[in-house]
C-alpha cells in the first residue's frame, strides 16, 4: 500500500509542475520596450542632428555676415544683399557637403553588407538592411532647407529697420533668441538636457558674431 501511495504521489507531483511562462514574457517585454526606445532615439538623432546643425549654421553664418558688413557699412541694402548671398551660398554648400558625407556613409555600409553576405554574417535580409541605409538626396535637401530657415531669420529682422545701430542690435537680439529656441528644440527632440544645449548653442553664436564684427571693424579702421 505504501509503495502504491508513493507512486501516486510521485505521479501527481509530476503532473503538477508549474512552468512560469507569464514570468518569461513579463521579463522580456520591458527589455524589448527599452530596446525599441533606444533604436528610435538613435534613428531620430540622425535627422535631428542634420536639422539643428543646418538651422544653426544658417542663422549664425548669415547673422555674423550681416554683423560684419554692418561694422563697416551703414546701408541696409548692402547688409541685406550680403545676407542673401550668404543664404544662397550656404544652402548649396550645406546640401553638397551633406550629400557627399552621407553618400560616403552609404557606400561604406553597402560594402560592409557585401562583406557580411560573403562571410554569411547576420540574419537580416538584404532588403531590410537596404531600407535602413541613409538617403543622400533627402539629407542634402533637408540640410539646405534647414539652413535656409535659419538664414532667413536675421534677414527678416533687419529688412524693415532703417536706423543703423538699432538694426545691428535687433539682428543680434533676434539671432540670440532664435539660437535659444533651436537649442531647446534639439534638446527636446533628442531627449538631452535643455539648459546645457541652449547655453552651448547661444555661446557659440555670440562668439561667431562678436569675432566677425570685431575683426571686420578692426580691418576697416586699419585701412585694409
SSE ordering = HHHHHHH
Q: How many β-strand stretches?
A: 0
pLDDT < 50 stretches:
11-15, 19-28
% residues in beta strands: under 5%
Radius of gyration: 29 Å
The structural domain count equals 1
- Going by helix content, strand content and strand pairing, the class is mainly alpha
Instruction: Tell me the distance between the termini.
Output: 115 Å
Quick summary of this structure?
The protein is mainly alpha-helical and 224 residues long. Helices cover 86% and strands 0% of the residues.
Could you characterize the architecture of this molecule?
- By secondary structure, the protein is an all-alpha fold.
- It has one domain.
- 86% of the residues lie in helices and 0% in strands.
- The termini are far apart.
- The chain crosses the membrane at residues 76-96, 139-161, 168-189, 201-220.
Give structural attributes:
single chain; 224 residues; mainly alpha; elongated
Lay out the secondary structure.
Layout: H1 2-15, H2 21-70, H3 76-118, H4 126-131, H5 136-159, H6 164-190, H7 194-221
